[in-house]
Design goal:
534 residues; alpha+beta; Alpha-Beta Plaits; 10-stranded mixed beta sheet; 3-stranded mixed beta sheet; 16 helices; 23% strand; elongated; zinc; isomerase
Length: 534
């Protein structure tokens, strides 16, 4: 096996004798040839046995497969072994050959569960398991043109890797053999080298690290679950409860503890090399998830009895529907998503209409099964929403990126909005009493958080601008006021004053009591999302 060097010979023999599978042997020898890991398990074992039997005329041979990308290495030790150890008087002492032992590599027979990877690089690299994963993917009925594969490994694998390496290190030291390197190819990386081509061929799409479609496998090994527990006693600071974790023994916590624990303490608590388990790992979960899809548009609201989002107080629904629900019902069904998140450029009260070009909104669709929509399909979806209710209408419905949504949120505070308010006064008015409002420009307000929203917003004084106003006389007690304001201005409070919490206000400007009868949003001046042709 030309990817191995003469200096690897004693490591190969020690690991095989301990019950380590051929692929893990290659990992411990830092073999970076991806193709080599894909060879059948039995062939690899035979090759390793032949490698141990063969005579060595050269002390080192070059690694093959130089076209493979450099592999990730897992650091097992943090102390240097000493550069001089490599020289060792210029010779590598010999171990008894496998042939001399009578029963070559008996502990690494094909039916034996590996004492390091617990079978992950054995049974779970075979075609049967690949087909099982692909059947799960197909039954989930996702649209995808590529995939990224992820794997979750039992944390005790890191403990077993450390134990295997310390076992080799001890035996090499006892035999007076040099051992300079202290890193191995990561198990996850080796597994993906093997599994990626098989999944890609079976699914008919390429593996792509940037793909939004993820296929994940979660492995567990109940038989050895408690092997990490001694680390909690040796390094208690590494294991702290977390709200979203079922166990403190996470992979990262175990790795952190292994970095801190001293070698002699580790050897007191764990056998080196580790023993072979009775059972293989379990593939607990095979899951598929798609990255979120984002849909944006503008909505008009024509009802004065429709909240933007579900109106539920103390678990009781106050109104039967909402803008959010009327839109999301159709998007959730078409995209076949698990859930959604709705956002918009500001919001209107339940009794306020939104007219003109509408209010920009965006919806994040979480884990959608369907992700590919043509412009024509999006137009039909928009029409379906509009046909379903006379309370709202949607326009410019389109797919957008997560980054583009930031442009909508900018408009909440930075842009202007235009309103039309129907105002009542307690004292009779004439046209000349309200004419002066047309001349007021850039009126600066100080608005304390309104009483009606104080339960959900912090108490603060906000400075806002009324850019322009235009009053239209109706009768002695009513007039319509059209306003262009800074985004975030509380219009109702500007009219009635909110018990003096907004200053100045229409009541104080007219020197009489004023209240608002109707309010419409006529425009939200946010240039997003892009306008689409009808």
């Amino acid at each position: 096996m030309s990817s191995l060097a003469e200096k690897d010979r004693p490591i190969v023999q020690l690991l095989l004798d301990a019950g380590t599978c051929p692929r893990c042997v290659l990992r411990f020898c830092c073999v970076g040839s991806q193709m080599l890991y894909r060879h059948p398990h039995k062939d690899l074992l035979k090759d390793l046995q032949e490698f141990l039997k063969s005579s060595h005329e050269e002390e080192d041979t070059a690694c093959l497969d130089v076209a493979d990308p450099p592999c990730k290495r897992l650091r097992l030790e943090h102390r240097a072994e000493g550069a001089d150890d490599l020289k060792h008087n210029g010779a590598i002492p010999q171990l008894p050959s496998v042939a001399d032992q009578g029963n070559p590599a008996v502990d690494s027979s094909p039916g034996k569960v590996c004492n390091v990877c617990l079978g992950i690089l054995q049974e779970f690299c075979e075609a049967d398991f690949v087909k099982k994963v692909c059947q799960k993917v197909r039954s989930a009925d996702y649209q995808f043109t590529s995939f990224v594969f992820s794997v979750s490994l039992p944390p005790q694998l890191s403990v077993r890797e450390r134990a295997a390496w310390l076992g080799v290190k001890q035996q090499m030291r006892n035999l007076g053999l040099p051992l300079a390197k202290d890193d191995i190819v990561q198990l996850k990386e080796a597994y993906k080298w093997i599994i990626h081509p098989q999944l890609s061929e079976e699914l008919g799409v390429p593996a792509d690290g940037k793909s939004l479609f993820e296929v994940s496998v979660v492995f567990a090994h109940p038989e050895t679950d408690e092997e990490c527990h001694f680390l909690a006693t040796a390094c208690p600071d590494c294991f702290k409860p977390a709200k979203n974790k079922q166990s403190v023994f996470t992979r990262m916590a175990v790795i952190k503890a292994l970095e801190k624990i001293k070698e002699e303490d580790f050897l007191k608590h764990f056998p080196c090399p580790p023993s072979s388990p009775k059972n293989l790992c379990d593939a607990l979960e095979i899951q598929c998830t798609n990255g979120a899809v984002f849909v944006a548009g503008r909505y008009n609201k024509y009802s004065r009895n429709l909240p933007q989002t579900p109106w539920i107080i103390d678990g009781e629904r106050k109104l039967e529907s909402s803008v959010e629900e009327l839109i999301s019902e159709h998007l959730m069904a078409e995209f076949n998503a698990d859930s959604f998140n709705f956002s918009s450029s500001g919001r209107e009260d339940v009794d306020v209409r939104t007219l003109g070009n509408g209010r920009p909104f965006a919806m994040e669709l979480v884990n959608p099964r369907r992700v590919h929509f043509t412009a024509e399909q999006m137009r039909r979806l928009q029409q379906a929403i509009n046909d379903s209710s006379d309370k709202i209408q949607v326009r410019d419905l389109q797919l957008v990126t997560r980054e583009a949504i930031g442009r909508m949120k900018e408009g909440e505070e930075e842009k202007t909005k235009t309103y039309s308010a129907l105002i009542w006064t307690d004292k009779a008015i004439q046209r000349e009493d309200i004419a002066f409002l047309d001349d007021i420009k850039e009126l600066r307000l100080e608005q304390k958080t309104p009483l009606r929203v104080l339960h959900r917003r912090p108490l603060a004084v906000r400075c806002r601008l009324i850019h322009t106003m235009r009053a239209e006389y109706i009768d002695e007690h009513r007039f319509r006021l059209r306003l262009k304001t800074q985004a975030g201005t509380y219009i109702k409070e500007f009219v009635h004053g909110d018990f003096g919490r907004t200053k100045p206000n229409i009541g104080s400007l007219l020197n009489r009591t004023a209240d608002i009868l109707e309010l419409d949003v006529e425009s939200v001046d946010v240039d997003w999302p892009p306008t689409l042709a009808d």
